[in-house]
Design goal:
Helix content of chain B: 55-70%
Largest sheet of chain A: 5 strands, antiparallel
Number of strands of chain A: 7
Radius of gyration of chain A: 17 Å
Distance between the termini of chain A: 21 Å
Oligomer: heterodimer
Largest interface: A-B, 70 and 83 residues
Order of helices and strands of chain A: EEHEEEHHHEEH
Largest sheet of chain B: 6 strands, antiparallel
Helix content of chain A: 40-55%
Strand order of the largest sheet of chain A: 2-1-5-4-3
Shape of chain A: globular
Chain lengths: 193, 1253
Amino acid sequence: MIKAILIFNNHGKPRLSKFYEHYNEDIEQQIIRETFHLVSKRDENVCNFLEGGMLIGGSDYKLIYRHYATLYFVFCVDSSESELGILDLIQVFVETLDKCFENVCELDLIFHVDKVHNILAEMVMGGMVLETNMNEIIMQVDAQNKMEKSEAGIAGAPARAVSAVKNMNLPEMPRNINIGDISIKVPNLPSFK
Amino acid sequence: MALKIVKGSIDRMFDKNLQDLVRGIRNHKEEEAKYISTCIDEIKQELKQDNIAVKANAVCKLTYLQMLGYDVSWAAFNIVEVMSSSKFTYKRIGYLAASQCFHESTDVIMLTTNQIRKDLSSPNQYDTGVALTGLSCFVTPDLARDLANDIMTLMSHTKPYIRKKAVLIMYKVFLKYPESLRPAFPRLKEKLEDPDPGVQSAAVNVICELARRNPKNYLSLAPLFFKLMTSSTNNWVLIKIIKLFGALTPLEPRLGKKLIEPLTNLIHSTSAMSLLYECVNTVIAVLISLSSGMPNHSASIQLCVQKLRILIEDSDQNLKYLGLLAMSKILKTHPKSVQSHKDLILQCLDDKDESIRLRALDLLYGMVSKKNLMEIVKKLMLHVDKAEGTTYRDELLTKIIDICSQSNYQYITNFEWYISILVELTRLEGTRHGHLIASQMLDVAIRVKAIRGFAVAQMATLLDNAHLLTGNVQRKGICEVLYAAAWICGEFSEHLENPMQTLEAMLRPKVATLPGHIQAVYVQNAAKLFATVLKSGEGSADSTAAQEMMIERLPLFVQSANLEVQERASCILQLVKYIQKLQQKDVEIAEEVIALFAGELNPVAPKAQKKVPVPEGLDLDAWINEPPSESESEDEQPKAIFSKEEPKHSRPRHTEVDEKELAKRREARKQEQANNPFYIKASPSSQKVYQEAPGVEHIPVVQIDLTVPLKVPGLPMSDQYVKLEEERRQKDRADKKKKEKKKRKEKRSGRGKKHDSGPESEEDITPAHMVDIVTEEMPENALPSDDDDKDPNDPHKALDIDLDKPLADSEKLPVRSHRAAEVLKSPAEDGDAERSVSQEPKKKSSKEKKEKKKDKDRDRKKSKEEKKKKKHKHEDKGEDLLGGQEDEPVVQSEETSEVAAPPSSTTAEVSDLDFWLSNAPVPSNTQGAATVAAAAAADPVPEAASGAAPDSEPEEPKDTEAEETKSSKHKKKKQKKEKEEKEKKKKKKHHHHHRHSDAGGEESVQNGTVEEEEPLPPMSNYCLLAENSYIKMVNDIQGNLQDGSQVVVSVIFENKCESFLKSMEFNVLDSLNSKLQRPEGSGAHDGLTVPFQLPPGVSNEARFVFTMQSIVMPQKLKGTLTFIVKNEDSSTHEKLDFKLHFTCTSYLITTPCYSDAFAKLLESGDLKCSSVKLEGISMPFHHLLARICFHHHFSVVERIDSCASMYSRSIQGHHVCLLVKTSDQTVSIDAKCDEPTLLGNVLDEIKQTFSQC
């Protein structure tokens, strides 16, 4: 089981938090902070596993994380999950984000948390891995987005236009914080189809 | 219309959407909180609007704020509103918000039930998908109960997308609503073979999660998973399955044997590291489960260790980490094979990655031996010095202590060294583990008598240098060791070189800055030291100095704020003053003072208290005093509190009790206490008991051979011990050689060559000094059990459900319906209910078969919980015997109903498991069966025997072709022969089965396990139908489970003559009420051809179905059997007339009934009453019940002593309830039924049954 999925940036700012077990908001923030502290002080070339924090889990739980450019992707899982499998899952997740957002960067995650949630919902459900095939995930996400668009129909057009205008005068919006090192070592990705 | 929408959206396009909110927050970095609070106000406004789009937008923003840590539960209702929008866009926003912030105590959740149900059945798959995803996050027990049925339907949805999600969410439903597990499990199992790989993977996922917590219930799925494992190519699925096998193998070693080969193949073939790793892990689990007596698996271990070494040597830190992790699992059972990689592991200790270092540390634990302990610890001590982070250093510290103290200090050869290590550890800065070191010091000093002198010297130094430990504020944790030091110095003060100096150290003013509990120990032990000084020379300068010091310094402690310190200090101060006074009178006091602290304290095992068995007759839950009466409830109490008057009764009571009365009571109490073994008496004998206890005082304490100077100036350096140890060992070895040589000379002809002391072996290393490790005390009659209590809050505990047990009538998922008195009807309705629950009505009759499995299962598992669940069958232990036999009628009845119901695959699997497992390449077949049989036989409870007997029998004859083909899929050709043989046997048995009506008895004899105290007489329901010189017909009649108007007549035809019988035709004259079912197209008077011929001496069975209109009366039908008798030369046409007797009993079907449903049934008042008395019944009560069960198709609902309630149901749904009581050969049966005529007839038949015997 996956207990929580967290994405935060190099400064510990949460970009997505998904807890599959209920905590109240304060504890959630504490967990995010603690996890950030645990993860951020680790060097680049150390292993991606960490024996859980104080707040979340216990001896049975592990933090499995990957660090991409400015973002940390952290999964808190128990012993029923394969460690390497989850690492691959993170990779699939990031690659899917990359496909869906076309060159994903931190800003995409900042402004479209809801979309990230929707993508994640196609991969992990209630703490259990639902789908690991990227094409399948993208297909379902696209189909739902299409539905959304068709529902918005003409009514959605003006809103989209406005949003486009709003985004236009955004000089500070750099689109180059790319998740560049996507080719981070993937020991066994090809085997997960 | 469209225009209006556009206008509406133009209105709100300048509303702040999520992006605007995020942007705003980023632009207000300085005053984020303030900005957000204005945003929340805006959102509140938006939520008040009617426009759902605005609301959805607001909820979307709230979801973001929730992530930032803002509580948004106040908007829960609005979230529900958005969830119920008809548009997918909004619905999705709503469900997302709900999944992020709803939880069990969110009260609006109960409003969502119908909405979710609607969404689940939506024609749009994404509506359903979104609802399932959301529900998976916030499902509550109520939702789970209400929606379980809907979700279960979705498991068979046409779209794999929905199926997949529905399957996954079932796990959450099970967790919240464990009752749903059994009804839903068959379908879940089907999904393991779903054509869509995603659905299959989801099903595997769910079952693996379930099985991880309660593996034993899923053992029967092993063959299926094995098939999946060998066929699947999806690595996710493979990993899960392999992990699952890892959990199953400890329960079934035979499974492990079967797994080794395919797993080894996978290890060799796979390129995916994750899969390789899991395979290695499971192989390790298998090896652990097989750990004993499997010599030929050393290859597998070697393979694993080898692969792991490759992982550990990999440059990828992840693989290194996992390799070490898996290595630590091997370590537990095969330490030798890991120890050879010591170099690698020690190397990992230097890794820059902390996770890896920690894993390597774990491994060290198992790698130490007497030989290398010092060396390893020395290395660790170096790391301790180097380590930066406190966490890692603390981890090192605990590991050092763990390693040294493991299995009762097994590997420590020199305790002086260990004490030195502990003392060195106290110099660690800022460690949290002071108490750990302290407890080790205490433990060693107490349990290793020989070391006390040394320990005391060290502790004295420690106390002297206490300022080093306490000086720094950071070092708070470490001052705990002073607690130990003070106690050791005090308790074993006779070993002190210079007690005065230590006493002085203990009474320094600085001590007052220590934590209270340590001060208390200081004060107390100062008193002990004082006693020692006093004893060493009364009246000497030392003792007077000590006295003065005490009197001078103790007042400091008397003023302590800590109660304990204060109390002890003032006590001791007075004591010292008193001693002084006595001494002034020239009284010798030293002996008496020392007696204050005489006696030895022995270590008590930590679990000792828990292990004291509760003596018989002591009820810990019983009230000691009368419980406060209920009537004095809260209504009255507050009045008393608020009324100004003093409660009247309290005062006079005191005055009433006079002195005499008090004395009397005191006397009585004393008497009581004296008789109470659990009351600790005030007599001083308790300490003596310890001293007299054998094994403590009588342990010869060997003199310490001082190879190490006791007086180490300053703090000791453990390193020097390492060197000394080396020297000592060398010396030892040399000594030994000499001795051996001598021996050899003495014994000229040594038997074989004695091994030369080449490489030093474990045993060669003798401890530096003989050490008697005092074992911890345990109560005399301690229970040996070492069970660790499971967490009672574990949600998985509720899911420990036997899945092989057939579904009971009452087990079904709640279906939405109008409120009706469901419970009352339950037995009547269940026919329909079952059909709706289990997909194929076919399976139903298999239920009964499975029923038989129950006993076996229980024998194996013995879990109390299950027993409870089977309450309806086995009410208490006394009934077990009956319980075993009670299954007999089921065996029979099922036989007859077989025509209608071919055996189901579910049962097949259970019995299949044994068979499947026995196919392991290792010839474990007989062995496995033997162990099962042996287990059954070894069990002295008759239940086991009677249970096993009827069990083992059906397993074989039931193996019909369907199952055969199924199992053969997993089978290797090799075993085919074996199988065929079995089959033959089965067939033979099948024939005999019906002839020998005492099947149960016979079978049990075959099994050789029958050792019952009161075996039941053989019983049969087959009665003679007709007989002539050629043929004999016996028959039995059973109601048809499937059709309320049918009964099945099974007739066994036995050829009694030397001729061949053929062309048999069975015909009856139909009556208005009952008709023989004939194939379509045949006339009403045509006979039915019996589908077989009978060679001489052979018997066979045929079944005929009759349709009944009314079942309240017994009936007789006339019939004829015509057949041709064929001799070698001639053939004659013969016929035999018979009368088929349909008793009312034959319309009854054994139906289990729970006692609560039974009670409701009786209360309902719809039933008519009748009763009957049987005189002169001498058989035991359980025989009586068994007979009723067997001959009249009843089941026991409940049995209490000589009284039992029984239940049965007719094929048309009449309830028949019996209350059977017995006393002195008289049995009275009170019966209730909704059909009085039927009841009367059934009672008559029962009466007749018993009049015959």
